[in-house]
Design brief:
Order of helices and strands: HHHHHH
Helix content: over 70%
Number of strands: 0
Mean pLDDT: 77
Strand content: under 5%
Number of helices: 6
Largest sheet: none
Amino acid sequence: MNDLREAANQALAITDRSCRMGFLHMLLGRWARNDGSAAVAYLVENVKGDALPLLAGVLPSWAERDPESAWAWFQTSAREQLNFDARGMHNSALKEMFAAKPSHWRSRAVRGFC
């Protein structure tokens, strides 16, 4: 995972926002498939201002491998750490994550956000 962290650190230095975001999206999504909590922690700690769009690649990858941990982080930390508000279900990261296991997530969403 150190290679992914180093690559993400290098991507943060890219001045062109589109290129930077593209590289970070790919790197963090791959990282999340192996260690979702580490990828999210990196995102929260290092990516200022652009974290929410990148969450769209991280959460679904993490939820695919470890849905319970991804859901627990989302319920306990997303709002505080990233100022993330899921009300209205308009956010693409949430829609992607729910698409992975629709019945599992929908029942939790009703209990957690309504």
